[in-house]
Amino acid sequence: MRVIKTLRSWNVYVDEAYFLGGWPKAPVLEAIGTHIFFDDQDRHLVDSQTKVPCGKVLYKSDSILKNFETEMIVNAKDTEKVEN
Question: Within 10 A of 29 (CB to CB), how many other CB atoms are there?
Fold first, then answer.
């Protein structure tokens, strides 16, 4: 929702938006004929930039979202250790 709210605050409105979570982006972007792709993570932009023009969305390093993302990665690694 952060993406939509940011674009609207800039008076930019989109016809379609896709939120793919952790799925690989490049095949989907190519299949649907994406004009441009924005993401805030380098790992999502690396493969995607070979298929469509990409832009990195920056956010403050003290953002609660960045802390949440880091926490999710750490928790996922902890869960993997417990399961193995």
Answer: 22
C-alpha dihedral, 71 to 1 to 17 to 22, nearest 10°:
10
**Chain centre distance of CA 82:** 28
The pLDDT profile of the chain, 84 residues, written as one tens digit per residue, is: 777 888 888 898 888 888 888 788 999 999 999 898 888 888 889 889 999 999 988 766 666 666 665 565 656 556 555 555
Residue 7, judged by CB atoms within 10 A of its CB (0-12, 13-18, 19+), counts as middle
What distance in Å separates the CA atoms of residue 27 and residue 30, rounded to the nearest whole number?
5
- List the chain domain ranges: 2-83
Q: What is the pTM of this model?
A: 0.56
